[in-house]
């Protein structure tokens, strides 16, 4: 299976980059995983709603360049469904059993994802009803996808 993490912008902090790199390396035992980081749209210091919506639409187009029609896309957003690690594992297994070879996890910029992108996604998922720093949420997503593959492969990682 191919796993694409399509996330707007680069991680600034080295410790978050190192954590993501570690989970990406571990995932390599189970899947071909890669990170795609399109550049977010620059916005003024205090953008208005129209400016934000326009930027999100432009970012959606940048993200869309990396999504193949035959893939399964999961939009990471606050209004998405929260699921357990076991449920994520089952979802990935189901996607693979349906003959879909690529899963995209899409993470927006600090203003999230456009409504059009969320509507076009095959699934909307949330890490938690709690709020986390954007960079930390990305690390958590990588860890959970690694954990899901560990569950599917009966690894000792998941207890």
Broad shape: globular
Q: Identify the CATH class.
A: Alpha Beta
Bin the strand percentage. Answer: 15-25%
Give the biggest sheet: 5 strands, parallel
Helix content: 40-55%
Instruction: List the uncertain runs.
Output: none
CATH topology label: Alpha/beta knot
The CATH superfamily is identified as SPOUT methyltransferase, trefoil knot domain
Number of helices: 5
Number of strands: 5
Mean pLDDT: 95
- The rounded distance between the terminal residues' Cα atoms is 24 Å
The secondary structure category is alpha/beta
User: What CATH architecture would you give?
Assistant: 3-Layer(aba) Sandwich
List the strand order in the largest sheet. 2-1-4-3-5
Our count of domains comes out at: 1
Radius of gyration, in angstroms, nearest whole number: 15 Å
Secondary-structure element string? EHEHEHEHEH
């Amino acid at each position: 299976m191919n796993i694409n993490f399509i996330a707007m912008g680069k991680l600034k902090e080295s410790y978050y980059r190192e954590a993501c790199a570690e989970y990406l390396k571990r995932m390599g035992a189970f899947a071909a995983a890669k990170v795609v980081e399109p550049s977010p749209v620059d916005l003024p210091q205090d953008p208005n709603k129209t400016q934000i919506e326009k930027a999100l639409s432009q970012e959606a187009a940048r993200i869309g360049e990396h999504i193949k029609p035959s893939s399964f896309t999961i939009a990471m957003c606050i209004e998405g469904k929260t699921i357990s690690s076991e449920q994520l594992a089952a979802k990935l297994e189901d996607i693979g059993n349906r003959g879909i070879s690529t899963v995209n996890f899409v993470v927006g910029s600090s203003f999230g994802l456009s409504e059009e992108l969320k509507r076009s996604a095959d699934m909307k998922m949330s890490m938690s009803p709690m709020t986390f720093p954007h960079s930390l949420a990305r690390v958590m997503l990588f860890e959970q996808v690694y954990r899901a593959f560990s569950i599917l492969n009966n690894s000792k990682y998941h207890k």
